[in-house]
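Example record for the data management plan.
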Amino acid sequence: MIRLAIASDEPCIKDCAEQAYAGYVSVIGRKPAPMRADYAAQIAAGIVYLATDEQAKFQGFIVFYGQDGQLLLENVAVLPSAAGRGVGKALISFCEQAGRQRGLASVLLYTNELMSDNLMIYPKLGYLEVDRRTEQGFQRVYFEKRLS
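Corresponding structural encoding:
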């Protein structure tokens, strides 16, 4: 099940981000942006959704919002214990459906260029690389998926 996050979900969300991105700290040389995000503010803004299993146990989360006529998928993370079970794909599909329901043309996302797994996963989900930028000291690769 995927539902809107509430304030009491913040500890699980922060813990998930820490676990999901921990392996990238040594690769990037510092904590990736999702490990430093203000999840309390994002939850309060109503832009964080979480996935649970059949027993309502937390599995992962996604952060997205409308921006300039498209949906910006800012972050998706899955607990390592839930990896490989389709949780991430379900969260991304949920985001895409939200974009369609809002009448938006596309989903835009970015990942760090050193997160090589992501560079392979997003094209398999129908995303095309559209840009590379340095932002906040991170080398980011942008991907876009048209929703029409």
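Summary line stored alongside the record: The chain is about 30% helix and 35% strand.
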